[in-house]
Amino acid sequence: MTLQRLIITFKPEGVKICEEGRPMDIGERAEAELARMIERRSRQKDPKEASEEWQESARRHEEQQRLQSRYEWHLYHTAQAERVRRTLEDLVSHHEEQAAKLMDVQPTGTA
To answer: Phi and psi (nearest 5°) for 42?
Structure first.
């Protein structure tokens, strides 16, 4: 085993080794770090483009929520109208019966 192999095999913790097999100096490490950072940034999306996509997604979601809300309010008012109609019909019928008893006549709508 050569001396160079021995040094590489027992390298201290955190020491980077260049392609030639020797420890990297500070300048080489800085260049390697910059190259990694540039490569990583080149794979990332453009923040402005991502923001536009997010805004469009948020707009679609808000529109969907607005439609869902309108549908639920429609159902509420339709059901409430039906409940009130039934209640009032029963109430009208009750008062007509009471009025008929007082006047000793047949209530309207009964035969």
So the answer is: -65, -25
Domain that holds residue 88: 3-103
Q: Is residue 109 part of a domain?
A: no
| Identity of residue 48 | K
Does 87 map to a domain?
yes
Which structure tokens are listed for 74?
């429609």
pTM: 0.43
**pLDDT (tens digit, 9 = 90+) per residue, 60-100?**
999 999 999 999 999 999 999 999 999 999 999 999 999 88
Distance CA 50, CA 62 (A): 18
Write down the pLDDT at residue 75.
Answer: 95
Domain count, the chain: 1
Q: Provide the b/e sequence for 50-72 (b: ≥16 CB within 10 Å).
A: eeeeeeeeeeeeeeeeeeeeeee
